[in-house]
Amino acid sequence: MTSCCKLLVVALLPFLVSAVSWAGLADAIDPEPVAVNPIQREQAPSQPLADSRGTNSPSDSFYMRRCSPEQSLPVPHDQTRVAVLGYHNFSKTAPVTEMLMRTQEFREQMEYIRSSGLTVISMQEFLEWRFGSRELPERCVLITLDDGWRSVYTEAFPILKEYGFPFTLFLYPTYLTGRGESMNPEMIREMQQFGATIGSHSLTHPYPSQWKAEAAKGEAAYNAYMDKEMGQSREKLVELFGPVTTFCYPGGFNTEPMRERLPGYGYVAAFTVIPGKVTEDEPPLQIHRYMIFGTDPSIFRNAMDFRVAQLGKMVSTGAQPGTLPPTTPLPPFPVSPQPKSVVPHDIPAITAHLSGVSGVNFATVRMSVSGFGRVPAQVDATNRTISWTPPCRIYMPDISVHVTWNTTDGTSHKAEWSFQVDQSVTVQQ
Ligand SMILES: [Zn+2]
For the chain, which residues make up each domain, given as ranges? Predict the structure, then answer.
């Protein structure tokens, strides 16, 4: 048995979120042959959840504490927006990293949520709302904590208990030994009595490269791997903790085959690391989530901002490729990618050809891209272009581009367009 820590870096939008996940693998992977778990269901049921209170949800006394009179009242189903928060590791003293937050900062965030009148909902309430059997207040928060770090028990749990906030633990069974920095099952069972719901975070927390390597071996091997990482994970967690109906993609990495198979294992919802408010039409197997990093307070601020359209989400609400609502006139010059087109996630250069635009002062041409802000685009006055290539894969489904320039008479001009990024991952790539 060896212990190791792994750093999983998925290139993401610099100022929004980079999906970095530490996975401490305390145990070797179970070497036994994989039992194939046949796909039994194709669709998430509309009424998916029996009340599991007493097994995998808060105790009655816990609910009593939460139902204070000042709690917000439910609104019609389509008016609710949920900010799903994702946390990892905590410490009172260790240097903060993306994955590690100061305990005091976590307390301050929970205090902010309480004092702002936001409603912290349980996973059960979230799923009932998403599948149509419950109404919620307008602004809700769902708290999730990934991996099973011991500090979740020692640092975050006392605060969550004090505030009476329910929460979800996304666990992977090979990291439940109690050794190193991992929790043991007793700690988790104690937390279940105070608001913890258990979800699966795979069996061994594989890297995207591991998923891709298995996929490259062919369909049978890939299916067997998914049976193990998604199916066996749930079976083990159910054995230990009771009902499990949710999955959280390690590092946010998900593919069409993964999403297709998840319901067959008994999952009704799965969470990503792409930030954005969740609305009633959220695809249940690609639920947005704000990963709250210890090093970047702006992510929590964005998550708590229910007043304005959230970058990368509001434009995508209900949108399918080709159905982006028309907002502004299209640019009066050629651009690429083309407006409203759907492009691969490895985006080629974003370019505007300011041909046919007279009097452009090319020293003033600027480009801004949603998720990146002002970008260091190359301006080529000879060819009359401004161009920029994203430095990393883009995980936001909708991208808008703004190009501004002044003309020689001093007046300023703007053009903008949007395109969509195909989020389905081709595993052969
Ligand atoms: Zn993780």
Answer: 4-316, 335-421
Secondary element (H or E) of residue 256: helix 256-265
Centre of ligand 1 to C-alpha 205, Å, is 6
Give the CATH H-level superfamily of domain 4-316: Glycoside hydrolase/deacetylase (3.20.20.370)
Sorted by sequence, the CB contacts under 8 Å of residue 40 that are 6+ apart come out as 264
Instruction: Tell me which residues have their CB within 5 A of the ion that is ligand 1.
Output: 21, 146-147
Cα 18 to middle of ligand 1, angstroms: 13
Whole-number Å distance, alpha carbon 48 to ligand 1 midpoint, is 25
Question: What DSSP designation does 164 have?
Answer: T
Identify the helix (H) or strand (E) that includes residue 351.
strand 350-353
Torsion from C-alpha of 377, 314, 324, 355, nearest 10 degrees:
-20
pTM of the model: 0.60
Instruction: Read off the amino acid at residue 243.
Output: P
Element (H, E) at 222: helix 219-226
For tokens 């041909």, name the residue: 355
Q: What was the pLDDT predicted at 324?
A: 32
**CB of 148 within 8 A of CB of 169?**
yes
CA distances from 279 to 132, 208, 288, 306 (A): 12, 28, 10, 12
pLDDT at 2: 36
Rounded to the nearest whole angstrom, what is the distance from the C-alpha of residue 337 to the centroid of ligand 1?
33
Opening angle at CA 17, ends 100 and 247, nearest 5: 80
Using the mean position of ligand 1's atoms as its centre, give its distance from the Cα of residue 165 in Å: 22
Burial class (CB within 10 angstroms; exposed 0-12, middle 13-18, buried 19+) of 87:
buried
Query: From the CA of 271, how far away is ligand 1's center (Å)?
Result: 11
Instruction: Quote the ligand 1 centre to 26 CA distance (angstroms).
Output: 14
In this prediction, residue 329 carries a pLDDT of 66
Query: For residues 240 and 56, is the Cβ–Cβ distance under 8 A?
Result: no
The candidate with the shortest Cα–Cα distance to 284, out of 302, 255, 262, is 262
CATH class of the domain at 335-421: mainly beta
How many angstroms does the Cα of residue 8 sit away from the middle of ligand 1?
9
**What pLDDT does 67 receive?**
37
Contacts of 416 (CB under 8 A, 6+ apart): 327, 328, 331, 400, 401, 402, 403
Grouped pLDDT means (10 residues each) for the chain, 429 residues? 36 33 30 29 33 37 39 85 97 94 96 92 97 94 98 98 97 95 97 96 96 96 98 98 97 96 97 95 96 92 73 36 43 84 77 88 87 82 90 70 87 83 51
